[in-house]
Write a structure and sequence with these properties.
By secondary structure, this protein is α/β, with parallel strands linked by helices. The chain has one domain: Zn peptidases (Aminopeptidase, 3-Layer(aba) Sandwich), CATH 3.40.630. It has seven helices and eight strands, in the order βββααβααββαβαβα. Strands 1-2-4-3-5-8-6-7 form an eight-stranded mixed β-sheet. Helix 1 crosses helix 7 and helix 5 crosses helix 7. It binds zinc ion.
Length: about 220
């Protein structure tokens, strides 16, 4: 059985939950719905939890943490940003963090790590020391890809073999304050960002990526 954790709460007090497949092995962390207007990413993370609750999960010996929805307020409001109007994927305390314009869709917050949702991730990573991380996002049509930060090229290629998406080392625009920059680029923890095509429905996105996500979990540690 999976263990359920409430890691913290959002700006508006909604619980941020994680589901743990608890085995004696290095932790693999998976995070869905950093941006509230990318509901397919929450659906995929929830579908993964459902899969891990079946006999599939019972037969696995990996140690997996799944945060199904990091931005529950944004999901409810269908907004990219959290309820404070901050882009959580620009709020991590990277060397190149910048505040930016509150009106901008990439607003980084009043200070690095200012948001409770960001603190949930920082705290979880500090406590669990994951050996690799998969973050699920959505992107405009035709730009779907497996993006990676840090030493994760082989993991990205493994996933691409299964979902047929292009592997992209650089998403094409600077991402100061992003989770991938903080954990993958700066801390060298292999980090893959799966970008689902936002024009496809959630079930199709999950079915296309189910094996790729399982391959990510079950890959050998290097
Ligand atoms: Zn996103």
């Amino acid at each position: 059985m999976l263990r359920t954790h409430v890691l913290g709460t959002s700006v508006r007090g909604r619980p941020i939950r994680a589901y743990e497949l608890d085995n004696p092995a290095p932790v693999i962390l998976i995070i869905g719905c950093v941006h509230g207007d990318e509901p397919q990413s929450a659906f995929a993370a929830e579908a993964l939890v459902e899969l891990l609750q079946t006999s599939v999960g019972e037969m696995m010996d990996e140690h997996v943490f799944v945060v199904t929805c990091l931005n529950p307020d944004g999901l409810e409001l269908a907004t990219r940003k959290n309820a404070n109007g901050v882009d959580l994927n620009r709020n991590f305390p990277t060397a190149n963090w910048r505040r930016g314009d509150p009106q901008d869709m990439f607003y980084g917050g009043s200070m690095a790590g200012s948001e409770p949702e960001t603190q949930v991730v920082l705290d979880l990573i500090r406590r669990q020391q994951p050996r690799r991380i998969l973050v699920i996002h959505c992107i405009e049509p035709t730009r779907h890809c497996v993006n990676y930060d840090g030493p994760a090229q082989s993991l990205a290629e493994l996933m691409a073999k299964s979902n047929g998406y292009p592997v992209v080392a650089d998403i094409g625009h600077p991402t100061p304050g992003s989770l991938g920059t903080w954990i993958g680029y700066e801390r060298k923890i292999p980090t893959v960002t799966l970008e689902l095509p936002e024009n496809l429905d959630a079930e199709t996105c999950w079915q296309t990526n189910r094996n790729a996500i399982m391959d990510f979990i079950q890959a050998e540690f290097e």
